[in-house]
Amino acid sequence: MEIIMNNSIPFLDLVTPHEDLKEELCSVFRRTLATAGFIGGPMVAEFECDFARFCDTEYCIGVGSGTDALRFALIAAGVKEGDIVCTVPNTFIATAEAISQAGAQPAFVDVDERTYNMHPEQLREYLEVGCRDDEFTGGKIDRKTGRRVTAIVPVHLYGQPADMDPILDIAERYHLIVIEDACQAHGAEYFSRKAKRWLKAGSMGRAAAFSFYPGKNLGACGEAGAVTTNDGQVAQRIRLLRNHGQAQKYYHEMEGYNGRLDALQAGILRVKLRHLAAWNAARRECARRYEDLMGTLRGDIRLPYEPSWAKGVFHLYVVRHSDRRGLQSHLSDRGVDTGIHYPSPLHLQKAYEYLGYGTNAFPVSERVTPQILSLPMYAQLRPDQQQTIADAIAEFVESKRQSIALMSS
Ligand SMILES: Cc1ncc(COP(=O)(O)O)c(C=O)c1O
Question: How far is the C-alpha of 214 from the C-alpha of 305, rounded, in Å?
Answer without folding.
Answer: 26
